Amino acid sequence: MSSSFGARFTAALAERGQLCVGIDPHGSLLRAWGYDDDLAGLEKFALGAVEAVAPLCSVVKPQSAFYERFGSAGIAVLERVVAESRAAGALVLLDVKRGDIGSTSQAYADAYLDPTSPLAVDAITVSPYLGFGSLTPFVDTARRHDAGLFVLAATSNKEGPEVQEAVTSEAFGARTVSAAMLQHLRELNAEATPLGSFGAVVGATLRDASFLGSSGTEGGSGADLAINGPILAPGYGEQGGTTSDLVRIFGSNARHVLASSSRGVLRLGPDPLAMRDAVARANDELRELLS
């Protein structure tokens, strides 16, 4: 790759807009499209979705688990999703939420970020909850191959606050765990231009973002979301997150937000025109309010 992920991300959003479509082959969606929940249905669904949306989206985000459930043949479909999405001009963010330590982290990083791997993508999601330092193999590998990471910081699931809003000890700054994750990302992205390659995952449905830290100026509810890096905001659209929520939560940083929707687009399939229209409408709305 000839440029950093942060640079490619910035260019993709400027050219194609801020909507990310998750290509998540739920069994219920396969059946809604008229397919069986089997390998043949997976292939028709996933590749049909890619054909419809990848030429329009800045980023597509396949969720690895929905392919893994079919074993090695499902992984082969995922490899085609990655290759055909990139051929259509979209960046590929693989939603795997990996997190481990030492050589295991390195193996995961090599599997997804080394361009010699058949599953190599532009960026992946990772979990820092074994300690942010456990992500070092991912960080080093991403830097080496101009790839990106999206680190879980403030997810919108109801169980998340138990960990993410817990307060660290004085030795670690007496701040919430989520705020600590964002600070680590600021440090990784320091001095990067036009944008760093290390992003945060922050839910688009958060009611109150104040636990992310307080600056009073950078984001909704006094949260400081300036990390000089990309932000993935899952929950946009069908799950209740709106463009107004993105403005409220992210404030002046909303221009770096990738708003992620899966079912809101995929439920319109298998009609490719309906899916493309949904992508275009969402990008127009995001462009109007976030630019």
Automatic annotation (TrEMBL):
It is an enzyme of class 4 (lyase). Belongs to the OMP decarboxylase family. Type 2 subfamily. Transmembrane segments: none annotated. Pathway: Pyrimidine metabolism; UMP biosynthesis via de novo pathway; UMP from orotate: step 2/2. The keyword tRNA-binding does not apply. This is Orotidine 5'-phosphate decarboxylase. Residues 18-278 form the Orotidine 5'-phosphate decarboxylase domain. The gene is pyrF. NCBIfam families: pyrF_sub2. It catalyses: orotidine 5'-phosphate + H(+) = UMP + CO2. It holds the Pfam family OMPdecase. It comes from Nocardioides vastitatis. Its EC number is 4.1.1.23. InterPro entries: Aldolase_TIM, OMPdecase_type-2, OMPdeCOase_dom, RibuloseP-bd_barrel. GO terms for molecular function: orotidine-5'-phosphate decarboxylase activity. The active site is at 97 (proton donor). Keywords: Decarboxylase, Lyase, Pyrimidine biosynthesis. SMART domains: OMPdecase (SM00934).
